[in-house]
């Protein structure tokens, strides 16, 4: 919940996550916490490309990502995917977040986070 309108609304964020967990439990009848953990594990990129340059020559170099950054990046990608799918849509943010988490936990390419992770790793592989 960033960018302007919903900025700083902790109670709203807590309610969204609570509704998301209820939806996950109803849809796939699994432990919602385990689904979230699996989604974060599957959607965290392992490798990224960074800019290395000196004297005006900039090139990209593939680097490994630290475990903390992997988790942060995964959560960012999951929430961004949910926000984009809920924008101008009849579905609530909780429903979109539940769909995103379920798809990411399965490793499905319908998930925004999984698509972005694959794209980041493909760029890194090209710049090895």
From TrEMBL:
GO terms for cellular component: cytosolic small ribosomal subunit; ribosome. Keywords: Ribonucleoprotein, Ribosomal protein. Residues 2-128 form the Small ribosomal subunit protein uS7 domain. Pfam families: Ribosomal_S7. Gene3D superfamilies: Ribosomal protein S7 domain (1.10.455.10). The keyword Metal-binding does not apply. GO terms for molecular function: mRNA binding; rRNA binding; structural constituent of ribosome. GO terms for biological process: translation. Belongs to the universal ribosomal protein uS7 family. This is (wild Malaysian banana) hypothetical protein. It comes from Musa acuminata subsp. malaccensis (Wild banana).
């Amino acid at each position: 919940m960033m960018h302007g309108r919903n900025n700083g609304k902790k109670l709203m964020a807590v309610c969204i996550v609570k509704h998301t967990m209820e939806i996950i439990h109803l849809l796939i009848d699994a432990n919602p916490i385990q689904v979230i953990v699996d989604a974060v594990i599957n959607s965290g990129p392992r490798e990224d490309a960074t800019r290395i340059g000196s004297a005006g020559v900039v090139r990209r170099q593939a680097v490994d990502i630290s475990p903390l950054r992997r988790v942060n990046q995964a959560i960012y990608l999951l929430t961004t995917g949910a926000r984009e799918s809920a924008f101008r849509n009849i579905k609530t943010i909780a429903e979109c977040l539940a769909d995103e988490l379920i798809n990411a936990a399965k490793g499905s390419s319908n998930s925004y986070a999984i698509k972005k992770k694959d794209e980041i790793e493909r760029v890194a592989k090209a710049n090895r």
